[in-house]
Amino acid sequence: MDPFILGECQKRLLKSFLSLVARCIIVASFVADGVRCIQNCHFKSIQLNLTWNCGLYLAELYLLLLGIVQILASILVVVQKEKFLATGMLWLAAHIRLVTNPLLWSISMYREVLGATSALLLTMLKPRHQVVISFLLATFLNWYELKDLLWEDLLWYFLGKSTMKPLLVYMMIGLKTKVSAFVVILLMTAHCFHVHAFWQVPIAHEFMDIRELMVFQFWNEVTVIGGLFFSAIHSKHRFENIF
To answer: Which helix (H) or strand (E) holds 194?
Structure first.
């Protein structure tokens, strides 16, 4: 076989494999929430009933359906089957989860949901110019919340203001996109595991709300990292000649 053709085949195989990995990372938050809904169905149904007075049976049915739908739709996204339907199901599940959980009733939490759902759009529509810009803008706005860490963690505040946000702007306008994408993914991964380390929070009633918020933010940021990775692999107009 011609060496050039062989090289192109290898690049395509590598790109396909990395795309699969990126899609798995993108749907991670939905799979994690689906598994939690099924595993902790009884406990969560009690919370849901206390909040909405809907009855334990209806609450359990809702949680089971929400968990199953998220897992099945995530599988469809990963294997690229019925991707429009699967993306719509996950988008709807994310917003239903937001509406039914009072802990998430804030503008900052809704922006995080938009960041995760915009990452989903990358897998459905491919990284077109408008989709990539929308996703990066949502990521930029979410990272802006690092200003809240000024007195708690000066390191992340400094990195957010001096490094992360400028790199996201570079990616949006197409400057040094390859290096920017790599550094942004590294920084977001480190931030995710450092700031949202929910496994370090004791499993106790008094820490339940804090832990639940940290779990939500951790997996949402994982999905955004997957979106950045997917954009870096596919987007020609912003990440030209990566492979």
So the answer is: helix 177-195
Q: Biggest alpha carbon distance in the chain?
A: 68
- CA-CA distance, 232 to 240, in Å (whole number)? 9
pTM: 0.87
Quote the CA–CA distance of 46 and 17 in Å, as a whole number.
Answer: 42
- For residue 108, give Cα distances in angstroms to 90, 138, 148, 193, 228: 20, 11, 11, 19, 20
How long is the chain? Answer: 243
Tokens 């503008």: give the residue. 107
Contact by Cβ (8 Å): 217, 233: no
**Under a CB-based contact definition with an 8 Å cutoff, are residues 174 and 136 in contact?**
no
Contact 85, 93 (CB under 8 A): no
* CA dihedral of 155, 159, 161, 163, whole degrees rounded to 10: 160
Question: Tell me: the pLDDT tens digits for 7-62?
Answer: 778 888 888 898 899 999 999 999 999 999 999 998 899 989 988 998 899 999 99
Domains of the chain, residue spans: 7-234
The whole-angstrom separation of Cα 60 and Cα 68 is 12
- What is the tally of helices (H) and strands (E) in the chain? 11, 0
